Amino acid sequence: TVEAGMRSIERRLPAEASEAALDAEIAALNADPEVDGILVQLPLPRHMDPHRVIAAINPEKDVDGFTPVNVGRLGIGLRALVPCTPKGCVILARSVHPEGLAGVNAVIVGRSNLVGKPLAQLLLQADATVTIAHSRSRDLPALCRSADLLVAAVGRPGLVRGDWVKEGATVIDVGINRVEGADGKSRLVGDVAYEEALPRAGAITPVPGGVGPMTIACLLENTLEAALARRGVGSL
Length: 236
Description:
Blueprint: H1 19-31, H2 50-55, H3 68-75, H4 84-96, E1 105-109, H5 116-125, E2 129-133, H6 140-145, E3 149-152, E4 170-173, E5 177-180, E6 186-189, H7 194-197, E7 203-204, H8 211-230
Parallel strand pairs: 1-2, 1-3, 3-4, 4-7
Antiparallel strand pairs: 5-6
């Protein structure tokens, strides 16, 4: 944030802090005119209701794009602060589909509120044909093989095998999983079996170093958009 010319403020509460204490922190940040973006690190301790906590954030400062107001605005195609990871996925997809995403057959493996659902909304707005696959989907490999754009976002290491990837498809791996190798050392891997998929994919993101840095960049962009909008300057 320093390199981007932004000031970052961190508020740390102990795990046993009450939900009322967290509410008070959010209320103070909502009221502070010097604060343009607020995000609450998830997951929260079990005694807190994440939906209620997120809903307490001023939607104009909701740079994670998780409040019901921003989720609803995204769902009906209005301007909104968009969740950072899905936003980054679309930017990555456009970088290898310069002609646009209209008509592209997109398959998203994962239906979370944080990635799968908002990404589907963004791809629909780009006129892609979107399928959301999940744990109850039938013949997941066949669904994946139908994709021109395949996004894996389920948190299961190596779930998507190389032969699930259509020749020339764009593969975006959102998964970040820590696994232990044969040498006893842990490493980060994605939801896609990268080495298997690499020869078949037209483009593929690595883990780490792919979606993660793009998510951070989109968080900075959302913060700038929020700052501009709150000052009546407009959006990027």
